[in-house]
Design a protein that fits this description.
- The chain is of the alpha/beta class.
- The chain has 16 helices and 27 strands.
- Among the domains are: 151 residues, ANL, N-terminal domain (Rossmann fold), CATH 3.40.50.12780; 95 residues, ANL, C-terminal domain (GMP Synthetase, Chain A, domain 3).
- Helices cover 29% and strands 25% of the residues.
- A hairpin with a 2-residue loop joins β17 and β18.
- The chain is globular.
- The protein starts with 13 loop residues before the first helix and ends with a helix.
């Protein structure tokens, strides 16, 4: 085993190492409350949270599940799990109860941390699972807030924290040990938990810093949710690695992000196309000083040319990125002085990333379309308790199959052409048609259904349900039916009807024919 695979005291020691170097720099700003935290503040908070985890019996390698929006408590948990060697598993509050319950059962946490607005959701999700663990609640209120209903014995986070914020003994971990469990979806929409190791998180940070040119004075408004890899690895951890400032808020508001850029001197912004578009359409767009922005990237789906031009017209060098939970996510970068005609590409591979385009594992010639595969020390370790899925995605030779189609042009720029599978991205969220179809098919007015993706100015792509059945069905009725069954971002936004669904054989639905007629 290499030295890098053996136990190291630096592994997980994010807040104490950064505090030793820049204790008085601002590491975090809570835009919702206006509170500001230096790195010394964050380390003291992490020490208290580490003691809370120990008090609740969370040992090395055991999981802490959290259902919350972006807030300082999540940051405390990231740093504290690094100190204690436990694993942080942020879960989406946007999921329907059955979906969230599946993830909770898979993570099997020793401690559950729930933001107050999601107590009812989480309680419903736990019904029918075998998950039994203590819970604490996150609030913006004062100490003494208790949780009724689903978690009658839960304490408020602020009440549960020990008062002692002195340094704790950091666990001695190996770089190959896990630190984050971040959920994604399989080709059928079945949730999978991706295991991100300390090594992978550090290497992604190194790749981001070196390829994007991050600096110690960078400030970023964090607009990705912290239950995604985007919330941690796109830019948050790399900014902390350099000693910069991350600004979080409970909800996305384009006007607030614009104010953060101007008031805080925002220099790095990475967001999904819908967020970037919303900012250009806000009343404050034309009057906001954007001159401090140095690195602005779009991710989570293709960005429309009109959105990119709106940013370019303001003198901002917006480009597109590409990543996935299983690898990175920051795999590409635009070279200095990149030509605008390459705006539809994701650039060239980052410093410590290998990329190739293959057909059945064999590299294709430049210009030909095939599956994009990536190899890097920042790749995830695999999926939690899913050996078959892990073997299908993570090759023995280190190559990660992305499931995306791509090509490389003569100048070495990579162009992502679409999903190999039927999954599509809507507002940065993965949507799997087969999962949506299964839920829609339960409606009494539906005999058969195929979900296809169609363009949408706000969300990039949204679902359209092509239905064989009762033509009196409306999209509003269908979405009401799906509430509580599927997260709302998975709901179709339009309907189309066919008398008989086309087939390519005696019993196989011809999805390609439906996509060609009704899709994008």
């Amino acid at each position: 085993m290499s030295e890098f695979g053996r136990p190291q005291e630096w592994v997980g020691a994010w807040s104490e190492k950064r505090t030793a170097l820049t204790p008085d720099r601002t590491g975090l700003v809570d835009a919702t409350t206006g509170e500001r935290y230096t790195y010394a503040d964050l380390d003291r908070r992490a020490n208290r949270t580490a003691r809370l985890l120990c008090d609740r019996g969370v040992d090395e390698g055991e999981a802490v599940a959290v259902v919350s929006r972006n807030r300082p408590g999540l940051v405390d948990l990231f740093f504290a799990t690094g100190k204690t060697g436990s694993v942080l598993a942020p879960l989406s509050h946007r999921l329907a109860p059955p979906e969230l319950g599946t993830l909770l059962a898979r993570v099997d946490p020793e401690l559950l941390v729930v933001e107050a607005p999601f107590v009812e959701l989480t309680g419903e999700a736990l019904e029918g699972t075998d998950v039994e663990c203590p819970a604490v609640t996150l609030t913006d209120g004062e100490a003494g807030t208790s949780t009724e209903g689903s978690f009658p014995d839960a304490e408020a986070y602020v009440d549960a924290l020990p008062a002692d914020d002195d340094p704790v003994e950091t666990a001695t971990l190996a770089p190959s040990d896990p630190h984050l469990l971040l959920h994604t979806g399989g080709s059928t929409g079945t949730p999978k938990e991706t295991v991100l190791t300390h090594r992978g998180i550090v290497w992604n940070s190194v790749n981001t810093i070196t390829s994007w040119g991050l600096r110690d004075d960078d400030v970023t408004p964090m607009v990705f949710p912290m239950f995604h890899t985007g919330g941690w690895n796109v830019v948050t951890v790399p900014i902390w690695h350099m000693g910069g400032t991350v600004v979080v808020a409970r909800e996305f508001d384009p006007g607030q992000v614009l104010r953060v850029v101007e008031d805080e001197g925002g220099s790095v912004l990475v967001a999904v196309p819908a967020v970037l578009r919303a900012m250009t359409e806000h009343a404050a767009w034309s009057d906001t000083d954007l001159s401090t922005l140095r690195v602005v990237k779009s991710g989570g789906g293709p960005c429309r040319q009109a959105v990119m031009e709106a940013w370019w017209d303001r003198g901002v060098d917006l480009s597109q990125g590409y990543g996935l939970t299983e690898c990175g996510p920051n795999n590409f970068a635009m070279p200095e002085g990149w030509p605008r005609e390459q705006a539809d590409s994701v650039g060239r591979p980052a410093m410590h990333v290998d990329a190739r385009v293959v057909d059945d594992g064999i590299p294709v010639d430049r210009g030909e379309v095939g599956e994009l595969e990536l190899r890097s020390p920042h790749a995830a370790a695999g999926y939690l308790d899913a050996p078959e899925e892990t073997a299908a995605t993570f090759g023995d030779d280190g190559w990660v199959a992305t499931g995306d189609l791509a090509r490389v042009d003569d100048e070495g720029f990579y162009h992502v052409e679409g999903r190999k599978k039927h999954m599509f991205v809507s507002g940065g969220e993965n949507v799997y048609p087969s999962e949506v179809e299964d839920a829609i098919a339960d409606h009494p007015a539906v005999d058969e259904v195929i979900v296809v993706a169609v363009p949408d100015d706000q969300w990039g792509r949204v679902g359209r349900a092509v239905v064989e059945g009762d033509t009196d069905l409306t999209v509003d009725e269908l979405r009401d039916f799906l509430d509580g069954r599927l997260a709302r971002f998975k709901h179709p936004r339009s309907l189309a009807f066919v008398e008989t669904m086309p087939t390519s054989g005696p019993s196989k639905l011809d999805r390609d024919a439906v996509v060609e007629r009704f899709g994008e």
